[in-house]
Every structure is written in structure tokens, then in C-alpha cells.
Amino acid sequence: MPIPYLLTTLIFTFVAILAAADASLVSINLVSAFPALRWVRVHFVTLGILSQVIFGLLPLLVASLSKKPRPAMRWDIWLTLNVGLVALVAGFGGMNHPMIFAGGTLIFISATMLLIQLWNVRGGDAPESLKFYITGMFYLLVGIIIGTGLYLNWSETLFIKSPLEAHIHANSWGFMSLVFAGLLVDFVPMITGRPLGTTKNISLIYWGMTLGAFSLVLAPWLGGSKPPTILGLLMHVSSTLWLVVLMIKAFKESGRLNSAGAWHLVSSYIWIILPIMMAPFIMMGIFKSGPIETTAPQALIYGWVLQYGIALIPYIARRFFLKDETSQLGGNWASLSAATAGSLFVWASIFIVPARGVLYGIGFALYALALIHPLMEILEIARAGLQKIEA
Question: Do the domain assignments include residue 16?
């Protein structure tokens, strides 16, 4: 993992802690001068922490698994990604449309360059995970187009009936789900010494998640059409559950299931499956969609993406930055407990309306606490690595 990406990951992790703390204080009315911007928080975790790891790691990982030379640091990709991210977040803060357009365009360019870089590694000894990464990046491009268009009135031109939902689905069920699955395909064997599954199983999971994501993006694009929604849910949930079962089996057989890091990975998937499982209840009118659609993305990002990152980012940094092939998954039992409890409180805030602000505030306070340990881990990794370079 190149140094620039590691350092920006560290910066965005620190900002994510501050954003979670800000959300907590605003929700319980202790702070009102700087109201929490939920989409800024979400994008600091996804486009901030997540993108730094993925953009910095994937070229090195795929080249290593393909037995090809280590690629040179692509400063053009790093620069356009981070300048675009700063511009995008600044645009959100002031609802500045030109700034949002500039930020979205720069991130789109960066993602396109990374996609081309990965595409050129196809064939030969390319790993099974490569198709997950390439398809995931394609969904990211779709998500960027829809998300940028939310603020620039592109939705009517593109005939998107529910653009916000389509944007979330492209990024969550498409980009993040597929890239995360690819990382499990690559890293579970490194951690456990056992393959995640047979080539046939991995291929079926890939197609189930890919086609399921397509249906889940198509459904809101068409205004909530039920056939693609139901088909997408069935395909995506079944493939994701299959992936999780294979992961649990590999951890159990290798004796790694007793670690907090393994449980961070396993429990993280509760928070992506839960919102999907709520969809039938919304469709049948049992629960109102508004509160769930407003709050669930926060629990999704801080429950699923955050816990996944707490386990895997320190492992990746140790293995690729410190060259430690015996590195362990990140996190501890305290971070696992805080992140899990935080998601429970945020979900409870959806249904317990009188105490919504307090429950939401407690949830984000717990998320901030959960981030402290991984922040210290990344700080120590960066310190140790930079000392080795100086020596």
C-alpha cells in the first residue's frame, strides 16, 4: 500500500471519528453551531477511507497475484481522487453546484484510470477476484454519474425516477459489495491458509451479486418496479449469504474464528443484509419507507463498511506496507462491541420515535469509540513503516 494512500487513509479515519462525534453531539442537542451533514459523513467513510484503500491496494494486489512486476505509483490517480473528494465535500457543505460537478468529474476520471489499469491485467495468471474489482469499479462510475446528477438535475434527462435510491444501490450493492467480495476471495486464503471456495462457487457468487446489483439499480431507475426489486434481492442476498458462509467455514476450520478481527468481518455483513431484508416489509406497507431510507444508509456505512475496514485495513497495511506476511486482522473486542452496539442504537432510532435523537446520538458516539483502536493501529503502522524507510 503506497505511502500517500496510507497517510490519506489515516487522515480520513481521523475525520470520520470527528464526523461521528459531531453527529452524536448534534443529535442529543449538545452542539448546534455545526449541524451534522449526513452525506458528508457517509462520503468521508466511503470515498474517503474506502477509496484510499481500494485505489492504493488493487493495482499492487492484482499485480502480485498475477506474478507481474509491482506497478509504479500513479500520482495522477491519487491526485485526481483526492482533489475531487475535497471539492465534492466542500460542494456538499455549501450546496455549491459547480464545486460538486468538479469534484464528481475528478473522481470519475480517477476511477476510470484505475479501471483501465485493472482491465489491462486481464488474462494469463490474473486472479479470480479481478472480475469482482473490474465490475465493482464499473458500478462506481454509474454511482458517480447518478450521485453528481442529483444536484445538477440530470435525473430527468437520464429518465431516473428515484435517483437517490439508484445512487445508493449502485455504490452499495454494486461497487462496495463486489469489491469487498473480491478482497475476501484474495485475503481469506492468506489469513486462513484455505481457499474461500471452489472456482465454480466463486464464479456463481460473482454472477449472483453482479446481476442482483443490476436489478437493484434498475428497480429505482424505473420508479420502484417490483419484479427487478424482488429478483435483485433474491440474487444479491443469496449470493452474499453464500459468501459469508464460506468465510465463516474457512475461519472456523483454520481456528481463526475466535479473533475479534474475524468477527468484525462476519458481523459486518449483518448490516448489509438487514436493510435488504426490510425491503419486503416496506413493499407490503408494514413499515414506512421514509425513516428507514433516511437512517439505514448511516447504519449501513458505519455498521458494514466501518467494521469491514476495521478488520481488513490494518491487515492490508501491515502486509503491503510493513511486508509482514504473518499480520493479523485489525480491531479488538472493544471496537467490535462498540461498532455493533452503535448500529443497534441507530436502527432502534428508526422505530422508537420519541427517543430518536438520543438513540441516534448514542449510536454515533459508540461509532466514534469504535474508530479509536483502528486509528491507533494505523498510526503505529505508519510510524513503524516510515522509520524503516528513514533507516
Answer: no
What is the mean pLDDT of the segment spanning 42-61?
Answer: 79
Answer whether residue 184 is part of any domain: yes
CA distance 292 to 286: 12
The dihedral of CA 287, 244, 133, 380: what is its sign? positive
Domain boundaries, position 181: 128-258
The answer to whether 113 and 81 are in contact (CB under 8 A) is no
113-138 pLDDT, tens per residue?
999 999 988 877 888 999 999 999 99
Distance CA 362, CA 10 (A): 24
Alpha helices, DSSP H only, in the chain? 3-27, 38-43, 51-65, 75-94, 97-119, 130-150, 163-169, 177-192, 199-221, 226-253, 260-268, 270-283, 289-299, 306-320, 333-351, 356-390
pTM: predicted TM-score of the whole model, two decimal places: 0.88
Where on the phi/psi map is residue 159: left (φ > 0), alpha (ψ -120 to 50), or beta? left
Is 338 a domain residue? no
